[in-house]
Each structure stands twice: as structure tokens, then as C-alpha cells.
Amino acid sequence: MNNINDEILNKLIDNEITGEEKEVLLDMIEGSDRLKNRYNALLKAHQLLRISTAESTSINFTKLVMAKIHLQKVREEKQKHFLFGVLSFLGLIILAIIAFILIKIFSVTGTESSDLILNYSKNVGDYFSDLFGKKNIAALGSVLSLIMFISAYFLYDFQRKTRKNFSH
Amino acid sequence: MMKHISDVEVIESVKKGNAADFSILVDRYKDKAFTMLKRILKNEFDAEEVLMDAFLKVYNNLNSFKFESKFSTWFYRIVYNSALTRLSSSKRKIEEAMNSIDDLTFLESKYKADEFNDSDVSNFVRKIIDDLPPKNAAVVTMFYLEEMNIEEISEVLEISVSNVKIILYRSRGILKKLIESRNLLGEIL
């Protein structure tokens, strides 16, 4: 009788033993006051835990969650628009350059056109050779770094503001 | 009579773009999950904050939920992991470990029989559950409040079924020993 440990009693409570084993156990429990007290205490603990109730969140909890979800969506939309704006701007610049070159090409005819293309190619080549030459590379690097720093600051500021809105 | 909408139906509706339907899931799970978090974190404010973050995580990752398990299992795993992250970040985990309820004398000295009367049985139980270590509190809440089975709980906590049983039995055992040692059986019955 002493070898009836709490694990077996727990299994009895959770119905994890066969009908036959259950009958034997219940007989043993009935036959021993000590075992009966142990079983009743464990059963009572189980019952007390079962009747414990859930606590409530604040009244407007659901509304707050839904508001946060909505804000998050707005933030994502804003980010999308921002990226779309930047990409559109870059795209427009590229299109304008292409359009300008094409207009120049089609505004002249025949051999003039091929000469013009050759001249343009040569000029563009020379321009970039000068631009990335030893003299200008340092200045160009500084300008590009400055532009990147300024862009990064604005991007960070934009992110910070949207995050601040999101957290309220 | 209003038709009960299953979790799966709600999720499918949200996935189709009806974000407002997510509030059905929030209303359905918030109180039980809040109770579990409060028992784990021992703090009402933290519990609500972590729960809010958990619901946002659930919403953002709803597309990755493939209905391979019950929604409740997936949801409680997110809630439990969020609680653990909060515990580890606030270093409360260490404090909780130091106050482990496995040391029965700690509880016995805390809850004296003469402080107990018939009218506050639920209060008595609540206080004991509130003092359980995080994992025990999670198991007890999911087993008794959410009525999840042992297998589901083991999936949530990512531990074996036998370990869940051990935690559950020990948690019951704590209460049982208090009832026995203070001769409370008659009073409660």
C-alpha cells in the first residue's frame, strides 16, 4: 500500500489508467485512511485548480490591439509610398536622360546621326574619364558621402516619426 | 441564435483582407492568455503589454500559419515565447528561480492556515498559482483554464509529454501538501 505514490494518484485523477486498475486502486484507497486522505487532498487540489477563473484585461484592450494593427498598416503604406516616390523620381530622371539623347539623335538625319552618336560617345567617355580622374575623385567621393549622409538622416527621421506614431 | 465562428474561419477571413475580424480572435483569447502571462510575469502591466505584442506578432504572421496544428497551440507558443523574452530581458527569470516554489517551506511560511477562511478559496488558490515558477504557471493555466491536453501543452512549451506531466503533478502536489500539512481538507470541503 505504501508503494502507491502521488504519480499513480495523479494518473487516477486524470483517468490515465485502465478500468481494472482503477477499481483496484479505489478499493485500496477505501481500505486505508492514510491513503484516502492523500487522495482526497490531491483530488481537492485538482478541483481547486479547475475552478480557478480567468482574469480580465483592461476594457478597451481589443480596441487598442486593433488600433495598433491599423496604425501599423498605415505605417507600411507610408513606407511603400515613400519608396515608390524615391524610385519614381530616379526613374523619371533616367527616362528624361534617355529621352534627351533620343531627341538629339532623331533631330538629325543620316550620316550626321552616326557622327553625332560617335561624338556623344566620345564626349561622354572623356567626361567620365575626367570626372573619375585623380583630380576629381576625392571631391566626388566627398559629395557623394554628403548626399548619402543627408539621405540617411532623412530616412532615419522618417522611420523614427512613423515608429513613434505606431507606438501610441 | 448567433452562429459560432471557428478559429479557422476567422483566420481565413482575416487572410482575405477582413482585418477587423481579427478582433474576434482577440476577444476569444485575451483573458485566458492574459491570466497566463500575469501568472508568468507576476505583473499586470507587463502581462498586458506582452499580450498586445503577441497579438501583433500573430496578426503579422498569420499568413505563415498553415493550419497544421490548432490555432490555440500556435497562439500560446507565441504568447509563451514572448513572456520568456520579457523575463530574460528584465532579469526576472533569475529572481523567479531564486524564489522557486519547489522549495515548499517558502510557500508554507507564506500561506499560514490561520490566514485562510472559507470565503476566499479562489483567492487562496490564485495566490498559490501566482507564486508558481513560470513554466508551472503556464502548464497549470493551459491545462485547467484553456483545457488543453498534455500533448498540446508539450507542443507549446516544446518539452516532452512526460515533462509536462511532471510539472503538472508537482504543481498539484504543492497545493496538495498545503492542504494536507495545514489540515485544510475539512475547511475547503
Task: Describe the protein in words.
The complex is a heterodimer of chains A (168) and B (189). By secondary structure, chain A is mainly α. Helix content of chain A is 82%, strand content 0%. In chain A, helix 2 packs across helix 3 and helix 4 (61-106) runs antiparallel to helix 6 (137-166). The two termini of chain A are 63 Å apart. Chain B is an all-alpha fold. Helices cover 71% and strands 0% of the residues of chain B. Chain B has helices at residues 7-15, 22-41, 44-60, 71-89, 92-98, 104-110, 121-130, 134-145, 150-157, 161-181, 185-188. The longest helix of chain B is centred in the last third of the chain and has 21 residues, at 161-181. Chain B starts with 6 loop residues before the first helix and ends with a helix. The chains are: A mainly alpha (168), B mainly alpha (189).
Q: Could you give a short description of this structure?
A:
The complex is a heterodimer of chains A (168) and B (189). Chain A is 82% helix and 0% strand. Chain A is mainly α and 168 residues long.
